[in-house]
């Protein structure tokens, strides 16, 4: 499992075996079951999670109890409530497991410690954060500017492995359409590929 993390970090920064052993000692392993909450609104203590196996979703529940999916996370992705993590705030975004999951996690204190001790780790975390900001901005622009069909096609391009792996109602929630509309979109895409 630490090999997966090392390979992930090595895409941006390389470390000696000794350095990586020290870095990896700041990460902790966690196994979660399908439908189990990783983060729940109101929670105080928050970590940042790296997905080894499984699929998770982060979402917000509005005052009408409607679920709005913000992100799916699959292997090699990071997930948390970023406001709670970086600003020591109470959790407002739920994160739960769509499948059984295996994760590595790090506290904000340890993330800051590693970033201070290793410029290359600070660079790694900055690159990952920047990628997250870009993805978040693109997600907002997608919801604002694209038609339902374009949002569905964008979802397929972003998460090609998830189309068959997660329930359709979650995809509908993510792209902001009803289940019935998603069914029509799926049929339309299928008909176009035949």
From TrEMBL:
InterPro entries: cNMP-bd_dom (IPR000595), cNMP-bd_dom_sf (IPR018490), RmlC-like_jellyroll (IPR014710). SUPFAM superfamilies: cAMP-binding domain-like. It comes from the Bacteria. It holds the Pfam family cNMP_binding. Residues 30-116 form the Cyclic nucleotide-binding domain. This is Crp/Fnr family transcriptional regulator.
